[in-house]
User: Fold this.
Amino acid sequence: MDPFGRTIDYLRISVTDRCNERCLYCMPGGYRGWGQKESHLTPGEIARIVEAAVGAGFRKFRLTGGEPLLRRDIVEIASGIQKVPGVEWLALSTNGILLAPLAEELRAAGISSVNISLDALSPETYRKITGGPVEKVLEGIHAAQAVGFPSIKLNCVLMRGINEGEIWPLVEFAAGHGLPLRFIELMPLTRTDVLNGENFFPVAEAESLLSRRDTLVPHGEKLGNGPARYRRLEKTGAVVGFIGAITAPDFCESCNKVRLTPDGKLRPCLGRHGELDLLPALRNGGDLAALFQETVANKPKDHGFSESYKPGRPMTAIGG
Ligand code: SAM
Ligand code: SF4
Assistant:
């Protein structure tokens, strides 16, 4: 339990800050410097950290980045975590580009839930936002469905003037494939200039846009372990989640997570700078579980996005 009565049992692990896309809101300049970094934790180190996290009450884990599937040892990382007693849930966030050839091995390694980013269906708009080919992502989605991950969700970051025309096509795609789709508000993560009146698109506006075409009813079932608020669209049958990180006044009240960076730092909050270095304890046999407890004890009440938060590390190095 943190000082604000929240149960913190979810660790998001960024396994790399590298990426093969260059999303406008995340890594617009693309990634430079391709080699596997020496500072990146090894699969064995990640498993030891997960063991310590379990000792401090953590039960749910997500692999993210950067693009986690760029790590050649991603399957080894996943199966190492899955073997740690006490791990109840292991998930993956990916842009989907490299998912198709890896889906089966990842499923066998114990990943039960996959979130795939899909900001647009139109190849031109998708390329404009991410620099990549949407066809590969669609192949990844189909492969994930074919190997039978128990949960697959689609994520779309909303940007006014860029992908608002994609909202309805994405809803129809999600309904047609029986996959929940979440709309996410832009956060000032890597860049400070993304969060301005011109391109910020509040989730409430997406909701009212959808309600002009369909009837939105509350979706009772909680999906996954994140902060989305879900609605079902009666006619299309789509299940749509809204992640109002900026506009929802109670967004942080249900926060249940901390983040691990690729170089072994624990971050109590995505939207505040504090972090705690696990490496000295990891490499010298110190008490890692105590550091998890300290991080939970220092979890801030809420993010600082509305206080002109200036990002210190790019999103890819924190773990989305
Ligand atoms: N590369 C993977 C992917 O794109 O899904 C995993 C890492 S990515 C940083 C995780 C999630 O964070 C994605 O859904 C992405 O769209 C979201 N994200 C990145 N930058 C963001 C921003 N500035 N505001 C809101 N969401 C963001
Ligand atoms: Fe890469 Fe994901 Fe960031 Fe896009 S959102 S640049 S795919 S890490």
